[in-house]
């Protein structure tokens, strides 16, 4: 008897957790399980703002897939997904093709540029290990260049972050913390460095309680961060960005422009013919796509509506990880030919945004607000909890964050 | 009675050693001694190839001037020399002027481009702390960029060194040693990285014994260095260099081109009207310039002929340091109105070229050839000996190289 082929695309939070759960829930006698990923490692997307700022080495964010996936139970294919053909039930890879009976798409996010001119070409993004490491090295390179130039070039030591949402704020907090070290390393007068955050919306950290937002902005401003709120980025060029507020345009010269203002689902999903909204598939409650009973979407390529607010839940690691529980269960149901599909309901335990080592803001247990050290500890507990879930105590000890009293 | 004003320009090997000796030899009641330097630190030029490769932090090469110069005895002026007016006996600085009765010029070297098109604009140089740190950061930035590019761009991970003389070889040896770490840090397949040394002359390490040259080339080739000997660089561009051998031209694409093929004296000296040959003043045996009895030149701005070979001595730290002895004595003679000038005779104790940590070649005591570990230890002893001479045991313990058994 032919075993059904299950293929999981992507080893991000959703994909790897689905795989790890499936390898425990269902035997190799029942299923032929394959995981496809571009790299041989999983990485913690929620820690990348630290690697980008250079405050946490990217190797700390990476987990070798072989450390959490049992290659005796799972075929691991290191390759890049080019497209999916859901009608023919196959996946086109850079170096081949894969057929599937059941597919789990966990291909993650891309930056959304909202059509703003020049972002694609001139902005750096906190998307993956490679792009984050490049932000660190770009800042270092430009700071290094500064004292080698005949004329003053302030754009080299001006860092601009597009977006004061979750990622933008977390990144700027790390950079602010690192600036004293950077200035020392490169013999630069700290008073000459600019760290600017530009936000088109009416507030930083949209969705957070105003008291928390105020705390965050005060703390960051005290570290030298300039906020330009209600200010839209009109264009990015090789030498800076053009912003507009109340109809007045201004150029901010910078060679270090990081775009952290929006994400969308991986464009492979849209290109493969799935119906999407900002690259994300509006999935059924059991996580299957509207059109295909054999395709599940987890993580940032999926969109779930929050019935209370009437708006979609933001794509977070927390939701991706919770989706994996349901995805793994429903794959098992499909493989076994059952019909007891589980439905997915997000259970938002808490949301904590870091403001740099030792400081954070957050909401836990629904309404409990946290500031500063307490929030920072909570953030580390959340991170450590995930590692425990993914790879057990061994992984936690290897990759966990234990400097909670720092 | 007016005290004579002695001004020393530059805190490189020659300038700082002259100052340190003078402050011991002659009291503040006799002389008004001023040291002018662009930075508030002295640095070890002979260690910069390590900072450039990223194998030794530049702070290890730096010594705060206040640690070796007694500011109660010496006026320290942190400023940039623009020009010298030897007729009016004054020095024009960026932020003012200084008058002198006796002047010591120790303004060091610049890269000589030999008029090769594009070197000035597109090559990195191992000239000072800023330019060396920039080489490290440029290589890291380009390696970081490599995995972010849609198309393969081998020029990002190709490092080309122009010149297989002392500095070029020492630099390439350090880079070769660091490559495994760089490839690991940036997830790059080491077999794709190229490390090329281009030398116009008929041999690497001109002036060294052929047996030593062969040893050096073999060792470096074993670490992956490609040598292109008898190959002239015709042009440097933003994307690489054009070389020519036996009338055949070839382009080598690189974003990491380091020019280490020649030095000349600081151009300020030539611009100030002193008669020079490749920027260097052909000084009298007592180190004074041919035209001015009150101006002494030490270090790389001075040229001394080797009577035996009929060629000038290469500008080295060793000679600069030895010149400082004579310079300080002769300044004292001038200040006191005597006539017992000392004449300078170089005493070449040894010449050791590093091939990267733990390996070197050299000649000591005239003809004794050294290889490998022995030569490497000798190199560190020479370095440590200088620190002891400059700042005593305290400085030696702080900045010395003690990993001699590594």
Automatic annotation (TrEMBL), chains A, B:
<dbReference type="InterPro" id="IPR051169">
    <property type="entry name" value="NADH-Q_oxidoreductase"/>
</dbReference>
<keyword id="KW-0560">Oxidoreductase</keyword>
<dbReference type="Pfam" id="PF07992">
    <property type="entry name" value="Pyr_redox_2"/>
</dbReference>
<protein>
    <submittedName>
        <fullName>NADH dehydrogenase</fullName>
        <ecNumber>1.6.99.3</ecNumber>
    </submittedName>
</protein>
<feature type="domain" description="FAD/NAD(P)-binding">
    <location>
        <begin position="5"/>
        <end position="324"/>
    </location>
</feature>
<keyword id="KW-0274">FAD</keyword>
<dbReference type="InterPro" id="IPR023753">
    <property type="entry name" value="FAD/NAD-binding_dom"/>
</dbReference>
<dbReference type="GO" id="GO:0003955">
    <property type="term" value="F:NAD(P)H dehydrogenase (quinone) activity"/>
</dbReference>
<dbReference type="GO" id="GO:0019646">
    <property type="term" value="P:aerobic electron transport chain"/>
</dbReference>
<keyword id="KW-0285">Flavoprotein</keyword>
<dbReference type="InterPro" id="IPR036188">
    <property type="entry name" value="FAD/NAD-bd_sf"/>
</dbReference>
<comment type="similarity">
    <text>Belongs to the NADH dehydrogenase family.</text>
</comment>
């Amino acid at each position: 008897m032919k075993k059904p082929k299950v293929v999981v695309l992507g080893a991000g939070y959703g994909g790897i957790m689905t795989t790890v759960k499936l390898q425990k829930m269902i035997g190799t006698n029942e299923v032929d399980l394959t995981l496809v990923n571009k790299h041989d490692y999983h990485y913690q997307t929620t820690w990348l703002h630290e690697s980008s700022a250079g405050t946490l080495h990217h190797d700390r964010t990476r987990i070798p897939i072989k450390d959490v996936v049992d290659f005796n139970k799972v075929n691991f294919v290191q390759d890049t997904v080019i497209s999916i053909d859901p009608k023919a039930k196959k996946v086109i890879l850079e170096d081949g093709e894969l057929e599937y009976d059941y597919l789990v798409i966990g291909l993650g996010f891309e930056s959304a540029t909202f059509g703003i001119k020049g972002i694609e070409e001139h902005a750096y993004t906190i998307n993956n290990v490679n792009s984050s490491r490049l932000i660190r090295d770009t800042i270092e390179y430009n700071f290094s260049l500064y004292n080698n130039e005949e004329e003053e070039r302030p754009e080299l030591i001006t860092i601009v972050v597009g977006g004061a949402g979750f990622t933008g704020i977390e990144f700027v907090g790390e950079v602010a913390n690192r600036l004293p070290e950077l200035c020392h390393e490169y013999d630069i007068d700290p008073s000459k460095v600019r760290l600017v955050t530009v936000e088109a919306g009416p507030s930083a950290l949209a969705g957070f309680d105003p008291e928390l937002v105020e705390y965050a902005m005060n703390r960051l401003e005290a570290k030298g961060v300039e906020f330009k709120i209600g200010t839209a980025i009109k264009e990015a060029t090789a030498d800076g960005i053009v912003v507009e507020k109340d109809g007045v345009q201004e150029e901010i010269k910078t060679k270090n422009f990081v775009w952290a203002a929006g994400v969308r689902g991986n464009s492979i999903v849209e290109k493969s013919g799935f119906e999407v909204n900002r690259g994300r598939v509006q999935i059924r409650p059991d996580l299957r796509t509207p059109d295909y009973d054999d395709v599940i979407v987890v993580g940032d390529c999926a969109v779930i509506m929050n019935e209370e607010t009437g708006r979609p839940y933001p794509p977070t690691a927390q939701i991706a990880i919770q989706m994996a529980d349901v995805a793994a269960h429903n794959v098992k149901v499909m493989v076994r030919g059952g019909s007891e599909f589980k439905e997915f309901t997000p259970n938002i335990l808490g949301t904590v945004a870091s403001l740099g080592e030792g400081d954070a803001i957050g909401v836990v247990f629904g309404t409990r607000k946290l500031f500063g050290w307490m929030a920072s500890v909570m953030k580390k507990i959340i991170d450590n909890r995930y590692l425990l879930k993914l790879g057990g105590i061994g992984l936690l000890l290897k990759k966990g964050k234990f400097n909670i009293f720092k």
